[in-house]
Design brief:
Elements (H helix, E strand, L loop, with lengths): L1 E3 L8 E3 L1 E7 L5 E7 L5 H30 L3
Antiparallel strand pairs: 1-2, 3-4
């Protein structure tokens, strides 16, 4: 759960976020992230964009480390 406590004029409320990891072939992992809709479309969109950015950063780190580790065989 994440607490949405930063929105002017809106009482704090919880937003459920679910992360699931599924192991695939060849040592890869599928990451699925779901979050509840927020109180309006604007904030839901902002939260989605924020999570997409964070997942992109995670993918970049994993890719960089994977390339680095492949060179160490």
């Amino acid at each position: 759960m994440n607490l949405a406590d930063f929105i002017p004029g809106i009482d704090p409320y919880e937003v459920e976020t679910r992360l699931s990891l599924t192991e695939l072939a060849a040592g890869s992992v599928r990451v699925d992230l779901q979050l509840d809709a927020m109180h309006n479309e604007f904030y839901t969109s902002m939260a989605t964009q924020g999570w997409e950015m964070e997942m992109g950063k995670l993918a970049a780190v994993i890719e960089t480390r994977g390339l680095r580790n492949r060179g160490r065989t």
